[in-house]
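Sequence, please.
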């Protein structure tokens, strides 16, 4: 999760998020190179006292500053398109989870199991313990197995919401009357936090998302316990 004075992105908890962080750093280096070059040229032009009344054209430099940006855009577009296709691709999922947004809480349904569904509300501040995070912890956490392809189906019952987990690189709109689909795989155990990222009313800030990533055997035990 985000920590104090953190200037970069959160640590990736899924392969897609790790690729997004790499792509962010890749584009940042290109921007740094462009900024340095432009700044150097501006300083050089300001300090240069040379003048020429006979320089009317510079075909070589005009050709260069037309082709160079096109090449730079190719170096940005290729990994970007690759990532877009990877994020849209839904592999054979081992588990399907449906999230329904309400004002102002989330409902979850494990479609592969019978009678495994629950509502998830934010823990009020007066009921919080020292180990919980304000505005982020919920009374019922989503429990998911790690290293397993998971299909996420997101919808809403009233207004627009957005199911977002930054450390997974997942942000899917919850639209009434529509099922939006995404997929992810959690690469490490732990607790992941997110929030609704679409302004949905007065208590928009108070509908967090909490995922507990566990090994598969613990997930099976949890399912057995919840199904009793």
């Amino acid at each position: 999760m985000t920590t104090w004075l953190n200037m970069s992105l959160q640590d990736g908890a899924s392969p897609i998020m790790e690729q997004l962080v790499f792509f962010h750093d890749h584009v940042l280096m290109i921007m740094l190179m462009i900024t340095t070059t432009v700044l150097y040229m501006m300083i050089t032009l300001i300090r240069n006292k040379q003048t020429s009344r006979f320089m009317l054209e510079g075909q070589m430099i005009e050709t260069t500053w037309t082709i160079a940006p096109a090449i730079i855009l190719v170096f940005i577009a290729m990994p970007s398109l690759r990532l877009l296709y990877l994020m849209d691709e839904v592999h054979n999922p081992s588990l399907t989870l449906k999230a329904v947004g309400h004002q102002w809480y989330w409902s979850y349904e494990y479609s592969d199991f019978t009678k495994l569904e629950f509502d998830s509300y934010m823990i009020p501040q007066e009921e919080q313990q020292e180990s919980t995070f304000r505005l982020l912890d919920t009374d019922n956490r989503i429990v998911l197995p790690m290293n397993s392809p998971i299909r996420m189906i997101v919808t809403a019952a009233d207004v627009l919401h957005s199911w977002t987990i930054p450390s997974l690189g997942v942000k899917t709109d919850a639209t009434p009357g529509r099922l939006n689909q995404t997929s992810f795989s959690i690469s490490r155990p732990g607790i992941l936090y997110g929030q609704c990222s679409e302004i949905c009313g007065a208590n928009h800030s108070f509908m967090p998302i909490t995922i507990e990533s566990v090994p598969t055997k613990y997930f099976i035990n949890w399912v057995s316990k919840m199904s009793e």
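The radius of gyration is 24 Å.
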